[in-house]
Amino acid sequence: MATEKTTAQSSDSISSVLSERRKFPPSAEFSSNANVSSMEQYEKLYADAAADPEKYWGEQAEQFHWFKKWDTVLDWKPPYAKWYDGGKTNICYNAIDVHVKSWRKNKAAIIWEGEEGNERILTYGELHRQVCKFANVLKIAGIKPGDRVAIYMGMVPELIIAVLACARVGAVHNVIFAGFSAHAITERVNDSRAKLVICADGTRRRGGSINLKNIVDEAIVNTPSVRSVIVLKVTNETVHMHDGMDHWWHDLMGLAVDDCEPAQLDSEHPLFVLYTSGSTGKPKGILHTTAGYMVHAATSFKYVFDIKDEDIYFCTADVGWITGHTYMAYGPLLNGATVFMYEGAPNYPQWDRFWDIINRHKITIFYTAPTAIRAFIRAGNEWVTKHDLRSLRLLGTVGEPINPEAWMWYHKYVGQEKCPIVDTWWQTETGGIMVSPLPGATPTKPGTATRPLPGIMVDVVRKDGTTCDANEGGYLVIKQPWPSMLRTIYGDNERYEKTYWSEFQNMYFTGDGARKDDDGYIWIMGRVDDVVNVSGHRLGTSEVESALVSHESVAEAAVVSRPDEIKGNALVAFVTLKDEYEGDMKLREALRNHVAKEIGPIAKPDEIRWAKGLPKTRSGKIMRRLLRELATSNEVKGDVTTLEDFGVLETLRGQEDEN
Ligand code: PRX
Questions:
Q1: For a pocket test of ligand 1, which of 276, 400, 402 has the largest count of ligand atoms closer than 8 A to its C-beta?
Q2: CATH 3.40.50.980 domain range(s) in the chain
Q3: Separation between Cα atoms, residue 438 and residue 424, nearest integer Å
Q4: Atom of ligand 1 nearest to the CA of 511
Q5: What is the arithmetic mean of pLDDT over 35-46?
Q6: CATH 3.40.50.980 corresponds to the domain 124-263
Q7: Reported pTM
Q8: Quick count: other Cβ atoms within 10 Å of Cβ 632?
Q9: Ligand 1 cavity residues, CB under 6 Å
């Protein structure tokens, strides 16, 4: 119920967000059954954890199986942390074996549905059997603890099986989103020096299929570290199997027994590398390690999603992103939950696919991204209202700020005005949720991720590191180490220190702007660096620029974002061509396709403007702020005194009609 209401504008400026006053406390019914059921309980948990973080994180870690208990909870030599040092554990053992030894053995771990409507159910017992067999396959393939394994497949249960099998033997998984191009795979495999690639022959999408094996073939021509490729048959694509290099998943599984002791790994044993965009060209390999990640993935899932054994939890994220790692695979399984997994497009065969799934499978918890919600709003309410969604009890969002009107729509049409919404703020680097309502406790407000979880010390600070006043915009930082924090950027400690720890002393800098309101709720104002959030995915504008410049026709390029109703942000590229090239529609399309090939379709610029020259400072820095203004309003109002050549701005205006 709304306790107070004003007309909220769109979420594109601080002042418009400030006008949001609606507040939605959880219902008494929800609270009475919740794991944390009141603000008083949350406040106490938070205060106790803040008073003695190590005690709190030590207690959270007690629930897991340890082959050897830790000596110290935290060893902090800024900016390098060791959590649960001296301990030995295995996250795969905690995610499946412990359940197989309990009544959950025959409980559904994964309920999967393919785009064509086919279904599979894997119980914890069956998942365990498959993971053990595949772990033995990895051993047959010569994989040893610490070796990197790249995984490139669509959303099939075998993707989770492969991930868990790596964790079981101590191999470091590097999942590469199946929408990425051959070039992106090459870059990631080379950076992590992966020995093995696990892929599918193809993946289904909108009634057709995409041949993934061909993309892998193209990618690994230039990856000297790769010794073999394991191929899962999913779509029956025509594929070329190379002798000695390529092996069928099913052939190898036929050779493997289903008994495999989990490796007893040090707490800080590397678990996975996941690449994410940074503000300079090269993607960053975010490194997460075993025990700390396990503790926070599991406890945050339990608190934020208020999980119960009867729940069927549906997360729409791909395992190729961090959300899929933490809240599709590890978090739910560590809690013995039932996960629903879907391979296919959200609008196939029609715009009601998710609502149809929720009704048929009686989904109780649904976690998706604001960009999907905005697309559903545009498709029309009738797709939602024709389905019975009464099974739902909790909704979540992640990936970008949700504009209050999208939040209200989600609340009304999907949540039927009864489901709490958890707006969860976190990052690939944080490994798990940092700021989020606890659904049985926190009164929510549309557009804010509310308060930090117990044990998480976030703050909004000024450039000099001092805490901002209420409602003063500043930089979002994390003031204390947390168990699932990234440990470094794979192979690049210097970049790790510079990116996250150099801006403010002894504080982790998130790269996000934010403000705290009078209730201490955090309102995220978006990125403050050259990273943009398109459809909930982070893209470094410099990566797109590098891709453009790698085309033969391009001399120079600058990429900026402008607000977009559906995608959150749209990419606008200002391109200077080499003299011998003429900018026309055909070249525009060629450049867009070139970027798709270099990075993936999500990175395609929405608009390309030809620029005889780019606005630069006298020292040669491209003035992106001016380009952002031009891209958004076709005008430049801000300060241009540092601009070297005023003429270039004129020529950049007024090209919109051509696109
Ligand atoms: O800018 C924030 C935004 O997404 C960034 C992290 O992106 P990535 O590492 O790809 O992880 C996305 C999934 C965890 C953040 O720095 N972001 C994420 N969640 C929210 C958000 N912005 C506002 N509200 C959120 N709930």
A1: 400
A2: 124-263
A3: 10
A4: 16
A5: 97
A6: yes
A7: 0.89
A8: 15
A9: 276, 322-323, 398-401, 423-428, 449, 510-512, 524, 527, 533, 537-538
